[in-house]
Specification:
This protein has two domains: 192 residues, Alpha-Beta Barrel (TIM Barrel), CATH 3.20.20.10; 108 residues, Lyase, Ornithine Decarboxylase, Chain A, domain 1, CATH 2.40.37.20. 31% of the residues lie in helices and 23% in strands. It is an alpha/beta fold. The chain has eleven helices and 17 strands. The strands form two sheets. Strands 1, 10, 11, 12, 13, 14, 15, 16 and 17 form a nine-stranded mixed β-sheet that branches. It has an eight-stranded parallel β-sheet with strand order 2-9-8-7-6-5-4-3, covered by helices on one side. Helix 3 links the parallel strand 3 and strand 4.
């Protein structure tokens, strides 16, 4: 991935050609499997990328916050799924939800009758998906609880469309991905069986929506019972995805550009990038805080707020050198920057605001 030599650093740089290739590849995989694509926009938080996803055939977007939903709906996204058990109070949030549903086809996740009741009061008849826990053990109900919760939602007047899950335990280690994919399919199969009994009794459509989502499990294969997939990180890739999704280095569409500002000792260097750009996100199975492409043998050992200390260098680096870091977790990096520097063949061609950052 070529980057411009005259960048102000640190900078978050996106390779336009690689991005387009990643978008096209996932869209083609979903289409070939007969699975609807609803990408998770929390990865990029960027209108320009959301528009591209929709142009590649995505039926809508998945979001992680109400603010994200509002931003993409205001930009014309036809359908938005808030993929967590949103609490619909206080009154300000109720007003925002009502206005949001006027702008887009809105879906919301639920995993309790209490949250469902709040939603039904705030936005009567809004479409919901029941969240089922497939093994991450964060939110979601057990598969055997999907049917009773769906009945409770229907009695509240909500539009129950199906079920969804997030197999987040795929991120535990590369060895966990196949099991997480199996868990995802098993949980959705059970949820689908429970919901199929409600067809004709209030359930929307001829079959329940069964929505799964993570880039690693999507890369492992899209198959029944999935009817919808919600990957996010696939747009850029990151250091985790090199192993979790078996990406090649030339699939990585985003790097952090930084400069060497000090070479204090042999085998060490200091970069002008720190936790305020790279974040401190590091899974236990990955050493260091990113992959330094110019010296892959080395470890980004420590981060301060604005600086990183690299150790274990055998590659010669000099003060002033421009280097590239593949971040461990791209979603947190994007959320920390205000813009993406877009490059084509090493030249800056655009700058995209990260409009939905927190």
């Amino acid at each position: 991935m070529l980057i411009p030599d005259d960048l102000e650093t640190p900078a978050v740089v996106v390779d336009a050609d690689r991005l387009e290739r990643n978008l096209a590849r996932m869209a083609a995989a979903a289409a070939a499997a007969g699975v609807a694509l609803r990408p998770h926009a929390k990865t990029h938080k960027c209108l320009a990328i959301a528009r591209r996803q929709l142009s590649y055939g995505a039926q809508g977007l998945t979001v992680a916050t109400l603010a994200e939903a509002e931003l993409f709906a205001a930009d014309g996204c036809p359908s938005v799924f808030i993929a967590y058990p949103l609490w619909a109070g206080p009154d300000t949030r109720r007003v925002r939800l009502a206005r949001l549903r006027e702008r887009t086809s809105l879906r919301v996740g639920v995993d309790s009758a209490a949250a469902a009741a709040q939603l039904a009061d705030a936005v009567p008849g809004v479409q919901v998906l029941i969240e089922v826990d497939s093994g991450q053990h964060r939110s979601g109900v057990a598969p055997e609880e999907v049917g009773p919760l769906a009945i409770a939602c229907l009695r509240l007047g909500l539009d129950v469309a199906g079920a969804f899950t997030h197999p987040g335990h795929a991120y535990g280690s590369p060895a966990d991905v196949p099991r997480a994919a199996e868990d995802e399919r098993a949980a959705l199969t059970a949820a689908g069986a429970a919901l199929s009994g409600l067809i004709g009794k209030g359930l929307t459509g001829n079959q329940p929506v069964l929505s799964g989502g993570s880039s690693p499990t999507a890369a492992a294969g899209l198959a029944a019972p999935l009817t919808e997939v919600r990957p996010g990180t696939y747009v850029f890739g990151d250091r985790q995805q090199l192993q979790l999704s078996n990406l090649a280095e030339d699939d990585i569409a985003l790097v952090v550009a930084t400069r060497v500002v000090s070479v204090p000792r042999p085998g060490e260097a200091v970069l002008d990038v720190g936790s305020k750009t790279l974040s401190n996100d590091r899974p236990a199975w990955l050493p260091g805080h990113g992959l330094l492409l110019e010296a892959p043998e080395a470890t980004i050992a420590t981060l301060n707020e604005e600086h990183a200390v690299v150790r274990g260098l055998t590659t010669w680096l000099s003060v002033g050198d421009l280097v590239r870091v593949i971040p461990n977790h791209v979603c947190t990096v994007v959320n920390l920057t205000s813009e993406l520097v877009v490059a084509t063949e090493g030249a800056v061609t655009d700058r995209w605001p990260v409009s939905a950052r927190h």
